[in-house]
């Protein structure tokens, strides 16, 4: 089922949003669709078409799938379709590129061995402060200020798939959920956030770099050096998710010797 790659992953989450396309009694394509509460203005979907059927039937099935999804999106007041998968793209997404689906983002989720990192410049500059998540929770004003800053940063890096209007309390629940309490989380000077990077343990033994932001990349470098020095001896692997639409995230990805990994591509179509 290699030609059903992303579809199989998504249909497990949205089994009720499934449509099959047949040639006679044989299923030659399927689509699954869903909405994202944080990015509610687009209809997300995954689809596959059998590569073994005749080219004319491939084109016919593609048109049927696309027409159905466009109609469904318009009925919900949406004007955008979004699909994604690992490169190289399979048949449906390859055909989609010829039907005005534009590549809008690439994403990588690499890992590296923490023991392989040689960290330098672990000195905190005079007047700067590193605080943990536990420290941050004791400072309600700073706790809220960082959430507001993160929401703004997230909006900027997702202009092509706009973010919902989310209240501060709900956004705090979203971003702070499962943050490691004793991990360094932010670099501060004179009550101003110079850099932040949330740390999670998504899998046992793996430290994951999450939401991040900074006034300048060098401030993020200072913070992450301290974070990774803290993590050594506690975790074996370092992981992260880095989007091409987030310049700081890509700076982080390029800075460390991450292992090679598949590239995830996101395609968007205005309807």
How does this structure look, described?
This protein has eight helices and 13 strands. The protein has 271 residues and is an alpha+beta fold. The chain has two domains: 98 residues, Gcn5-related N-acetyltransferase (GNAT) (Aminopeptidase, 3-Layer(aba) Sandwich), CATH 3.40.630.30; 152 residues, Aminopeptidase. The strands form two sheets. The chain has a seven-stranded mixed sheet with strand order 1-2-3-4-13-5-12, sandwiched between helices. It has a six-stranded mixed sheet with strand order 6-11-10-9-8-7, with helices on both faces. The longest helix has 21 residues.
Give a short overview.
The protein is of the alpha+beta class. The protein has helices at 5-11, 55-75, 91-97, 133-137, 140-157, 168-176, 217-231, 247-255, and strands spanning 18-23, 26-34, 43-49, 80-86, 102-108, 111-113, 129-132, 184-189, 192-203, 206-214, 237-240, 242-243, 263-270.
The number of strands is: 13
Structural class: alpha+beta
Order of helices and strands: HEEEHEHEEEHHHEEEHEEHE
CATH architectural type of the largest domain: 3-Layer(aba) Sandwich
Indicate the low-confidence ranges by residue numbers.
none
Identify the CATH homologous superfamily of the largest domain.
Gcn5-related N-acetyltransferase (GNAT)
CATH class term of the largest domain: Alpha Beta
Q: How much of the residues is beta strand, in percent?
A: 25-35%
What is the total number of structural domains? 2
User: Counting H and I runs of at least 4 residues, what is the number of helices?
Assistant: 8
The name CATH uses for the topology of the largest domain is: Aminopeptidase
Span between N and C termini? Answer: 30 Å
The largest beta-sheet arranges its strands as: 1-2-3-4-13-5-12
For the residues shown, what is the average pLDDT?
95
Q: What's the main sheet like? A: 7 strands, mixed
Percentage of residues in helical conformation: 25-40%
Q: Based on CA inertia axes, which overall geometry fits? A: elongated
Nearest-angstrom radius of gyration?
Answer: 22 Å
């Amino acid at each position: 089922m290699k030609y059903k790659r992303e579809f199989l992953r998504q249909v497990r989450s949205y089994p009720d949003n499934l449509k099959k396309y047949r040639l006679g009694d044989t299923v030659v394509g399927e689509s699954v669709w869903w909405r994202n509460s944080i990015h509610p203005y687009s209809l997300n979907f995954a689809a596959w078409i059998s590569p073994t059927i005749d080219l004319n039937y491939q084109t016919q099935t593609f048109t049927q799938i696309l027409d159905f999804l466009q109609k469904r999106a318009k009925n919900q007041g949406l004007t955008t379709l979004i699909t994604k998968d690992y490169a190289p793209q399979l048949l449906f997404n390859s055909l989609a590129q010829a039907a005005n689906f534009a590549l809008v983002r690439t994403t990588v989720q690499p890992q590296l061995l923490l023991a392989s990192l040689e960290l330098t410049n672990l000195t905190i500059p005079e007047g700067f402060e590193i605080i943990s998540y536990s420290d941050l929770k004791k400072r309600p004003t700073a706790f809220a200020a960082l959430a507001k800053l993160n929401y703004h940063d997230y909006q900027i890096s997702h202009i092509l798939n706009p973010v919902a209007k989310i209240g501060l309390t709900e956004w705090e629940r979203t971003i702070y959920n499962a943050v490691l309490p004793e991990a360094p989380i932010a670099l501060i000077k004179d009550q101003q956030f110079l850099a932040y990077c949330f740390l999670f343990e998504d899998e046992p033994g793996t430290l994951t770099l999450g939401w991040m932001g900074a006034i300048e990349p060098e401030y993020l470098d200072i913070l992450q050096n301290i974070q990774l020095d803290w993590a050594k001896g506690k975790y074996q692997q370092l992981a992260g998710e880095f989007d091409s639409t987030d310049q700081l995230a890509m700076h982080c990805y390029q800075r460390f010797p991450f292992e090679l990994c598949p590239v995830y591509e996101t395609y968007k179509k205005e309807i």
